[in-house]
Design brief:
D-Maltodextrin-Binding Protein, domain 2; eleven-stranded mixed sheet; globular; alpha/beta; 17% strand; 2 domains; single chain; 348 residues; 11 strands
Length: 348
C-alpha cells in the first residue's frame, strides 16, 4: 500500500513538473531543430512564446551536415516543425531531399536579395557571415612584418609556419575556406595552392575551437598569428575582452576573393502538424527582434536590411568586398570530391 501511495505521489509530482516552466496546460509546443552553434537570448524566446501562446523547444543536432542528415533520415516521421542552420554549402542537397514546404514570408521584402538562393521559398535566409583569414595585429607589428592581404601571401617563404586552418571534412569554417580557395584559384588551381601551403608548414586542426583557442597567437599561447575564422571575430574579441578596448587585437582579411560567404536558412519541415505556428516562427526569425539579437548571440550578420547592428559590430566588423564565388549546385556536385582531393594533398 505504501509503495502505491508513493507511486501515485511521484506521478502527480512528475505531471505537475511537466506543466511547469511558465507554460499552462494545453499550451502547444513548437520544435526548432538547429545546429549546435545556434543561440538566441531568453528574452527573445519569451517574446515569441508570449505573443503566440506557444512553448518553443530547441533540438540541437550537431554540425550542419549531421543535422541535415538527421532531418533527411527522419523525413517520414519529422523530429521538428522548423529547421534552422542549413547553409549554402548544403542547400542544394536539402532542397533535393524535399524535406521543406514552400513559404513566402511577408518578411522577405526586408531581406537582401543576394542572400535569397531558393526561388521556391522553401529555405529563407536568416543570417550571413564571411569565413576568412584573421591575423594577430600585435604579432605582426612586433615582427615588423606586413600581414597577409591575399591568399597568395600565405605561400610566401616569410609566412612559413604561421598559419593554422581547419579540416574541411570536420569543420564548417574549414570547408568554407576550402571553397574560398576553389572559388579564388579555380577547380584546376586550388590544389597547387594547398600543396604550397603544406610545404610551408601549415597546421591543420579538426575544429575552429582547436585552431583559434589552441594555436592562434592572439587568443592562446599558440605560435600561429594567422587563422581561418570569421570577419566578425574581431568584434567578438572586443565584446568578450576582460578590459575595455578601443581597437580589436585581431583583424580580418576581406579583400577580393579571400573569403567565402556562408548564408544560413530556415525552413518549415514537411510533415509538421503546426504549419500556422511554424510560419509565425519563420516570420519572427526574419523580423527585427530576432534579427537584432543575432550579432551578439552567433556573431554573424542579420539578413534583414532594416536590422540595427550593435556598436561593437559597427566599429570592428567588416564585410568582404567580393567573396569567392562557388554556386550551391557546384558545391553539391563536387563537395566530397574536393574534400577527398584536399585530404590526399594536405594530410597524406
Amino acid at each position: 500500500m505504501k509503495n502505491n501511495i508513493w507511486s501515485i505521489m511521484f506521478s502527480i509530482a512528475l505531471f505537475l513538473g511537466l506543466l511547469g516552466a511558465g507554460h499552462a496546460a494545453g499550451t502547444p509546443e513548437l520544435i526548432l531543430m538547429a545546429h549546435d552553434s545556434f543561440s538566441v537570448s531568453k528574452a527573445v524566446v519569451s517574446e515569441f512564446e508570449t505573443r503566440h501562446h506557444v512553448r518553443l523547444r530547441f533540438l540541437k543536432a550537431g554540425s550542419t551536415g549531421a543535422m541535415l542528415n538527421q532531418a533527411i533520415l527522419s523525413k517520414n516521421n519529422p523530429l521538428a516543425d522548423v529547421l534552422f542552420g542549413v547553409d549554402n554549402t548544403f542547400i542544394s542537397r536539402a532542397l533535393k531531399a524535399d524535406i521543406f514546404i514552400p513559404y513566402r514570408s511577408p518578411m522577405l521584402t526586408a531581406i537582401a536579395d543576394d542572400l535569397k538562393l531558393d526561388a521556391t521559398h522553401r529555405l529563407l535566409p536568416v543570417d550571413f557571415g564571411d569565413v576568412c583569414l584573421n591575423y594577430d595585429k600585435k604579432w605582426f607589428a612586433e615582427k615588423g612584418l606586413a600581414p597577409p592581404v591575399r591568399l597568395e601571401d600565405l605561400v610566401k617563404p616569410v609566412f612559413n609556419g604561421l598559419t593554422v586552418v581547419e579540416n574541411p571534412a570536420t569543420s564548417s569554417p574549414g570547408l568554407a575556406f576550402l571553397l574560398a580557395t576553389v572559388g579564388h584559384f579555380g577547380p584546376d588551381g586550388y590544389l597547387d595552392f594547398w600543396k604550397k601551403l603544406r610545404a610551408g608548414n601549415v597546421r591543420v586542426t579538426g575544429s575552429w575551437k582547436e585552431a583559434y583557442w589552441g594555436y592562434f597567437s592572439a587568443a592562446s599561447k599558440g605560435d600561429r598569428p594567422v587563422v581561418v575564422s570569421y570577419a566578425s571575430s574581431p568584434p567578438a574579441e572586443v565584446h568578450y575582452a576582460k578590459e575595455p578596448m578601443d581597437q580589436a587585437p585581431t583583424a580580418a582579411v576581406v579583400s577580393k576573393g579571400t573569403c567565402f560567404r556562408q548564408i544560413e536558412f530556415v525552413g518549415i519541415v514537411r510533415g509538421t502538424q503546426k504549419v500556422d505556428l511554424a510560419k509565425k516562427l519563420v516570420d519572427f526569425m526574419l523580423d527585427r527582434t530576432f534579427q537584432e539579437d543575432i550579432p551578439l548571440q552567433m556573431f554573424v550578420f542579420p539578413a534583414n536590411k532594416t536590422a540595427g547592428l550593435p556598436d561593437v559590430f559597427r566599429k570592428h566588423a567588416k564585410i568582404a568586398e567580393a567573396p569567392a564565388g562557388v554556386s550551391p549546385d557546384e558545391i553539391d556536385r563536387h563537395r566530397e570530391e574536393w574534400i577527398e582531393a584536399w585530404t590526399r594533398v594536405v594530410l597524406r
